[in-house]
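Thread: "does anyone have the structure for this chain?"

Original post by V.I.:
We have the sequence but no experimental structure in hand. Need at least a predicted one for the grant figures.
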Amino acid sequence: MPSSTVISSRKSESTTCSSSPSPLNMAKLPCPYVVEDCLGVMKLLSDGTVLRSTPPPFPAGADYDDGRVEWKDAVYDTRHNLGVRMYRPHNNKPDNKQQLPVLVYFHGGGFVFGSYSWPKNHAGCLRLAAELPAIVLSFDYRLAPEHRLPAAMDDAASALHWVAARISSGSADPWLPAETTQIFLGGQSSGATLAHHLLLLDKKKIKIKIAGYILLMPPFLSEKVTQSELDAPDAAFLSRAASDRYFRLMMPAGADKDHPLVNPFGAGSPSLDTAHVGRMLVVAAECDMVRDKDVEYAERLRAMGKDVELAVFAGQEHAFFATRPFSPAADDLLALIKRFLRA
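Reply from O.Q.:
Generated one for you, tokens below.
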């Protein structure tokens, strides 16, 4: 179990807590207890205290930082102290005439945990930068339950504004050159949901042209249960119980699974008919409970005349690029993304 830090002044080491001395109340009160547990890396206690794991959990299992990629951290939102980790291949120097695509990328974690700094997320972005190759910008965003949706969507929009401002400024920034023309938006799991919502933004106001989108296993939902949800085993990395837990923690009070935040085709969701997609790659996993929703998403966009490629990875579970960034399936995924970027 990862170690945890209590983001509160309350103590929770014992099973009971003494109340303040008072002649009217000398009883011992029960200590706060865990009401929601997300893989042990985020716990919500009964008094509202949030416990988050530190140091970052889930070691990558391999040291992929072999020197082919350089990276640095920056802050893109000073108000909320939100950071971005920037990656570029070492051979992408100012005197190199090769113009690399830029991939704006958002990590997953059910909107309740995760960071670009987590080892497996970092390893995946190192692979993306080195093997595509590309300049990769991996953004953090505010997490629930402290910041329920749409906070993360607002942060993703701020990230895109930050990218646009740096490119349009005309500064000689070797990480984001002004002549950048190929910008792709992508993410995995909840990060893919953020990429979908960026699709709905008015890019003219942001003054940035998006070449395409890469959505890796977006966890779209609906009140109507799909067959892949029914087939999902309790032991799956993303089970129905886990999905419901994240939903309770991340959504506004009173929201259901047809809310536009999680259902692109709900009654109140904005129409995608006029959305400019450019090109899109949607990746689904065969053994993922949201597989059917991902396939439906791609097929409905195709029916609207959008240029959408769908790939279903046989035998894989949800977010396999994050959980197993050095697996054969991850190798195949990188080859697929590389081909998509060069199409």
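V.I.: this helps a lot. Confidence is low (pLDDT under 50) at residues 1-16.
O.Q.: and The two ends are 44 Å apart (CA to CA).
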